[in-house]
TrEMBL record:
UniProt cross-references to InterPro entries, sorted A to Z: GapR-like (IPR018753), GapR-like_DNA-bd (IPR046367)
Entry keywords, A to Z: Coiled coil
GO molecular function annotation: DNA binding
Stretches assigned to the GapR-like DNA-binding domain: 12-83
Protein name: UPF0335 protein FHR70_004526
Amino acid sequence: MDDAAFNTESVAADQLKAFIERIERLEEEKAGIAGDIKDVYAEAKGNGFDTKVLRKIISLRKRDYAERQEEEAILELYMQALGMA
């Protein structure tokens, strides 16, 4: 193997290692944040809030208003078709 090939492999290996280490650090941060979120839900539940509903609201707030309206209209249509509304 010549020096150029070795250097290229060494640089690629160093880059790969750097990417892996960054991802590992971010995964650790994500786990910490997930734990914090879990604690907030537990606190909300302790104060009498329904965490299932809170999760639904968080999900809805992430989405565009028009997208939510369309989904709600379809849901209402389906519920009517099933005699649920």
